[in-house]
Amino acid sequence: MERPDVGAEVNGGVMDAKADKQETLPEIQREVQRKFGRAVLLLQQYERLAKALVAEQTVAGPIDKFAEIKASRAEAISKKTLGQVVGEFTDGYLRTLDEGPDGDSEEEPSGQNLPWFRVSFSLGIPAADFERTVSNLAELVGLRNDLVHHFLENYDIGTEGGCQRATSYLENCTKQIEHRLEELRSWAKGANEVRERAAAL
Fold first, then answer.
1. Which one of 3, 84, 112, 152 is CB 3.0 to 4.6 Å from 80, fit for a cystine?
2. At what angle do helices 127-154 and 25-55 cross, to 10 degrees?
3. CA-CA distance, 129 to 25, in Å (whole number)?
């Protein structure tokens, strides 16, 4: 009895599997779209959290209008771009550990019968890390602008090669955004802990 050519069957099965795994251009394009969407969603998460931190950086006013002033500031911050918010974050919220507290404060208006409050938060980091952090945030803003405004200009997703380059770019973008988002979340966690301690006092 003649033995079957097992090697031929195995090799044929491998060839068929490879053929089945070969993606078509529309499938590759959908993967690019998925990665693009993920990167944009992560950027929006970053932007929302950054705005929440900056909105509560400094709030001042009479006690009876404090909540109203706080809500008004949050609304104003929500309309700003990521670049504007990062600018406020690095110019005011972020400071080196050797800097003292913010000396700029609103003067209490005369004739005020109710208590006047000013609440201010800032994040202190080592001086050696300050410039690097500011640079990283500026790079994130540039990444966001390139991704949102120039992606199709820079990558031709009508071709397989263009899709491959776009995929590599988007994977790199996602890694950078995830790193910055994790950093921001750690800052936000610290800020919340400070607020809870202040409230307890």
1. 84
2. 140
3. 44
Q: Which of 168, 175, 99 is nearest to 136 (CA)?
A: 175
Beta pairing partners, 124: 95
Q: What is the DSSP string of 134-150?
A: HHHHHHHHHHHHHHHHH
Q: Can you give the length of the chain in residues?
A: 201
Q: Which residues on adjacent β-strands are paired with residue 125?
A: 96
pTM exceeding the 0.70 threshold for the entire prediction: yes
Can you tell me the distance from the alpha carbon of 89 to that of 117, in angstroms, rounded to the nearest whole number? 22
For the segment 133-177, what is each residue's pLDDT rounded down to a tens digit?
A: 999 999 999 999 999 999 999 999 999 999 999 999 999 999 999
* Measured distance CA(49)–CA(56) in Å, rounded: 11
Q: What is the largest CA-CA distance in the chain?
A: 111
Interior angle at CA 130, CA 124 and CA 135, nearest 5: 135
